[in-house]
Specification:
By secondary structure, this protein is an alpha/beta fold. Helix content is about 30%, strand content about 25%. The radius of gyration is 24 Å and the shape is elongated.
Length: about 290
């Protein structure tokens, strides 16, 4: 089975306000294990949950019943960067890895009974490659499959600024999949706009971008966002500057995400659902 078809484990660190049954703690009164409190039988006429001890203690001699919060669903979104830099890769592009992860997110949400949506963006949100949140796995997978033939150059990432308008009004779990080769101001602005949600930044980098450059000799460099191609004569010192630049960039990204309490998940190898399961176990266990 492909990693894209395997669900991963996730949980949400808040109580969902949805009225639909699911696997997450909710705020709606109903069937569940999350104790809410006691009320009178007149207020909640369910004699099966009568609390004899509290009834005997009630000074007003009212029959007391226990109430619980039901488990509910939560919206889940796969936000996919399809800008020019995501075309990087020899054989397997970053965009192909985006498709794997987004498909795995869709399967995981379906497995948990949650609603799932897909939002693709470059210099704008791409309507034909996006899908509102809902209980339709096949439509989500069909939308994600449409990324396969999406190929363009000279498209930036400014469309992320539009993404918050396409998210649910209810608090959602938002997987933002990108290489984050964009201005830090745009990242911070977008995170501020999505602050009502729980964002999981999934950073896709390739070692060949910075760690496997020539140590001496000519090499071609392609600007990931503009598509401009130029020939560069590499020396050991220049190669080291590239490595240092990426190291500094990683530290800057980690700092931005931690400031928003959204620890980043860097994926530089092949994708496995266990990577995301481990992330939730480490950072979002309840």
């Amino acid at each position: 089975m492909s990693p894209a078809h395997k669900p991963f484990f996730y949980n949400v660190p808040w109580k969902s306000s949805s009225v639909h049954f699911g696997d997450h703690l909710g705020t709606q009164r109903g069937l569940g294990d999350d104790y809410r409190g006691n009320v009178s039988l007149l207020e909640y006429p369910d004699a099966r949950r009568m609390d004899v001890r509290q009834t005997l203690r009630d000074p007003y001699e009212q029959v007391q019943v226990r109430t619980f919060n039901q488990n509910n669903t939560t919206p889940v979104f796969a936000v996919c960067d399809v800008s020019s830099s995501m075309q990087f890769g020899n054989g397997k592009r970053k965009l192909d890895k985006v498709m794997e992860i987004a498909s795995s997110i869709a399967y995981s949400a379906h497995h948990m009974g949650d609603i799932c949506g897909v939002i693709a963006y470059a210099d704008r949100v791409i309507d034909e490659l996006s899908m509102p949140a809902g209980h339709y796995l096949s439509q989500n997978l069909e939308t994600i499959a449409g990324l396969q033939t999406f190929s363009t150059r000279r498209l930036g990432s400014q469309g992320i600024a539009e993404v918050p308008l396409f998210l649910s009004q209810k608090r959602s779990l938002v997987f933002w999949i990108s290489d984050f080769h964009m201005e830090t101001e745009l990242i911070e602005k977008s995170l501020n706009a999505m602050s009502a949600h729980q964002v999981i930044p999934i950073v896709l980098w390739e070692a060949r971008e910075y760690d496997k450059l020539p140590t001496f000799g000519f090499g071609n460099l392609i600007d990931p966002e503009t598509g401009a191609d130029r020939t560069v004569f590499f020396t050991r010192a220049l190669r080291q500057k590239f490595v240092e630049a990426f190291t500094e960039r990683r530290a800057a990204l980690e700092g931005i995400f931690f400031n928003f309490d959204y620890p980043a998940l860097f994926i530089e190898s092949d994708y496995s659902p266990d990577i995301i399961s481990d992330y939730f176990a480490q950072y979002m266990s309840v």
